[in-house]
Design goal:
446 residues, alpha+beta, MetI-like fold, 5-stranded antiparallel β-sheet, 13 helices, 8 strands, 9% strand
């Protein structure tokens, strides 16, 4: 090798082939990555580019539509409803799932069966969205005999406000009763020593309460008002006598009878199993009323999948699935929290709530941010649950952008608007992803 002469320039070292960080030649690395790059381009880059171009074309795809497809995002009623619901999803679903995950992770940290509890909570993650949708379609069924949610709700309701056994009962022909505020009132006042007949019809024999017995005519008693409230119907053509207690006719057990005088209730009684009832002398000169509570329709629970509750109901199904995911990630972060800081806070006099709020949550902030951002990206493209759980009559009210994209593209044959929705969804996701990437880079620098 020749040395440099005085005043001359230094010799140029021979060029070297550049290598990657791991020492592999770049050309070899590119060859190995080429199949992945081709797949990425075919499955991600090309669809995004094609959707962007298609969003500016008309319905047939052979003409330029300008921004008309994007204007439809803010003028079409279905898309505006979907956009509003997406906002509700992004605000509430990730927040509730993350909060529940945090609570579960913290509360189960010190109990022996914490691992088993976490396993049960995480188990819904193993279920597909399709299966979860079918499960919750049954859970939210309106019929309390089928839907678990309404079975529980009706049980709680009936504990405090029992439904009537005679919702369809009403006076028959030649009845002394007339309608009054949802119930029925006698047309004439009653007097002590009188036996009153209150015939009713409208309850099918197989719907009568099990405790109902054969009705009997109540005997009159001095100083008291007695009577009979019964089902004035006998099976068989021309068998029974109207307005009279016939053999085989049943009483209305538990029905409430009120004595009303000058608009005030002065006495009341419950009908016995044989239909008879007895009122004191306070009922003398009063009129008898069968209040509306006797004819209250059976409580069938909440219309979970109706227009007003369908979106919260579907969000509840989503939280059921993803709270376990949030719990596992937060529990992993909690395991890395220095215990010395928690103990120091307790030694300084902080109670458990203050330790949780002032120490645990700030230390878990990076993990909570990861969970929250991940769930936000996930809910922006939620489709399966919204497509399966709501019935056809409520699906418009539960609509989201991903479902509206499917509808426009396949059901309504408007691929231009569907592509515009896809591009709009991509634009919504990009800031969230960008924020997540920046946060991860800051974590790496630390």
């Amino acid at each position: 090798m020749t040395s440099a002469t005085a005043g001359g320039t230094a010799p140029v070292p021979p060029a070297r082939t550049r290598k990657s960080v791991t020492g592999t030649r770049r050309t070899v690395a590119v060859l190995f990555l080429l199949p992945c790059l081709v797949l990425l381009g075919a499955l991600v880059v090309y669809p995004i580019g094609y959707s962007l171009i298609r969003s500016f074309l008309n319905q047939s795809g052979d003409g330029f539509a300008g921004v008309d497809n994007y204007k439809a995002l803010f003028t079409d009623d279905g898309i505006r409803t979907a956009l509003k619901n997406n906002v509700i999803w992004v605000v509430f679903a990730p927040t509730v799932a993350t909060a529940l995950g945090l609570v579960f992770a913290v509360l189960t940290e010190r109990v022996r069966w914490g691992t088993a509890f976490k396993l049960v909570v995480f188990m819904p993650m193993a279920i597909s969205m399709l299966a979860a949708g079918i499960i919750f379609r049954l859970v939210y069924d309106q019929d309390p005999n089928k839907g678990v949610a309404n079975a529980v709700w009706v049980g709680v309701h009936d504990t405090f406000a029992e439904s009537s056994a005679f919702p369809n009962a009403h006076p028959g022909r030649q009845s002394p009763l007339r309608p009054e505020k949802g119930g029925f009132l006698t047309q004439q006042a009653v007097h002590a020593g009188q036996s009153v007949s209150l015939p009713l019809v409208g309850v099918a024999p197989d719907k009568m309460p099990g405790g109902a017995k054969k009705a009997v005519r109540a005997p009159s008693e001095p100083g008291k008002v007695t009577g009979t409230a019964w089902q004035d119907f006998t099976r068989g053509k021309g068998v029974g006598r109207l307005g009279q207690v016939d053999p085989g006719e049943l009483g209305y057990p538990g029905m409430k009878i009120e004595a009303v005088k000058d608009g005030k209730v002065v006495d009341s009684a419950k009908v016995r199993a044989d239909g008879t009832f007895t009122l004191s002398d306070k009922a003398d000169g009063a009129r008898l009323r069968l209040p509306a509570s006797n004819f209250r329709e059976p409580y069938n629970g909440v219309d979970w999948l109706g227009p007003s509750l369908v979106t919260p109901a579907v969000i509840g199904a989503y939280v059921w699935m993803w709270a376990g995911f949030a719990m596992v990630l937060i529990a992993a972060g909690l395991a890395g929290v220095p215990r010395e800081l928690l103990e120091a806070a307790r030694v300084d006099g902080a109670n458990e709530w203050q330790v949780f709020r002032r120490v645990t949550v700030p230390l878990l902030a990076p993990v909570l941010a990861v969970v929250l951002v991940t769930l936000m990206i996930n809910v922006l493209k939620v489709f399966d649950l919204v497509f399966i759980i709501p019935p056809g009559s409520s699906q418009d009210d539960a609509n989201v952008l991903a479902l509206e994209l499917y509808r426009k593209g396949f059901s309504e044959d408007q691929p231009g608007i569907a592509s515009a929705i896809a591009v709009f969804l991509l634009l919504l996701v990009i800031p969230v992803v960008w924020f997540n990437v920046r946060r991860l880079r800051r974590e790496v620098r630390r």
